[in-house]
């Protein structure tokens, strides 16, 4: 994917099938499309949370995040795929819980287009 932050690895967070949360509201979907950052939380060694703001896109019901394959996030995901993601601004929370899936090239073309549109 080409963007100001070059990435060599990507992950996506699907909705957790074991939980039946309400569908995102129209306002939440607009924020997911508009906002630049999401707080991405992975589970570190010993169960400690690791939080980092990252660029993301919400495309086809998935949250896609780009990160370096040597990052703490990817290391955590390889060992424990449980994650959470939350939009900034606690006055109108949008929070997702699920299991991340690490993607390698070729990345889904719809995600590549969405990143280019949002960040280039």
Walk me through the structure:
With 120 residues, the protein is of the alpha+beta class. Helices cover 23% and strands 36% of the residues.
The number of distinct helices, counting runs of at least 4 residues, comes to 3
Q: Which value, in Å, is the CA radius of gyration?
A: 14 Å
Beta-strand portion reads 35-45%
How much helicity do the residues have?
A: 10-25%
Question: What distance separates the N and C termini?
Answer: 11 Å
Order of neighbouring strands in the sheet with most strands: 6-5-2-3-4-1-7
Listing every helix as H and every strand as E from the N terminus to the C terminus, the arrangement reads EHEEEHEEEH
Give a short summary of the structure.
It is built from 3 helices and 7 strands. It has helices at residues 26-34, 72-79, 109-119, and strands at residues 9-13, 37-43, 49-59, 62-67, 82-87, 95-99, 101-103. Strands 6-5-2-3-4-1-7 form a 7-stranded antiparallel β-sheet.
Features of this protein?
120 residues; alpha+beta; 7 strands; disordered N terminus; seven-stranded antiparallel beta sheet; single chain; globular; 23% helix
Write the layout of secondary structure elements.
Elements: E1 9-13, H1 26-34, E2 37-43, E3 49-59, E4 62-67, H2 72-79, E5 82-87, E6 95-99, E7 101-103, H3 109-119
């Amino acid at each position: 994917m080409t963007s100001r932050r070059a990435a060599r690895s990507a992950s996506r967070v699907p909705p957790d099938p074991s939980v039946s949360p309400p569908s995102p509201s129209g306002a939440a979907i607009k924020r997911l499309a508009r906002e630049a950052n999401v707080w991405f939380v992975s589970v570190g060694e010993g169960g400690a949370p690791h939080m980092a703001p990252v660029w993301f896109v919400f495309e086809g019901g998935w949250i896609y995040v780009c990160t370096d394959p040597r990052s703490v996030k990817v290391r955590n995901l390889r060992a424990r795929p449980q994650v959470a993601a939350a939009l900034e601004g606690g006055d109108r929370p949008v929070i997702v819980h699920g299991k991340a899936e690490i993607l390698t090239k070729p990345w889904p073309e719809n995600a590549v287009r969405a990143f280019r549109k949002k960040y280039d």
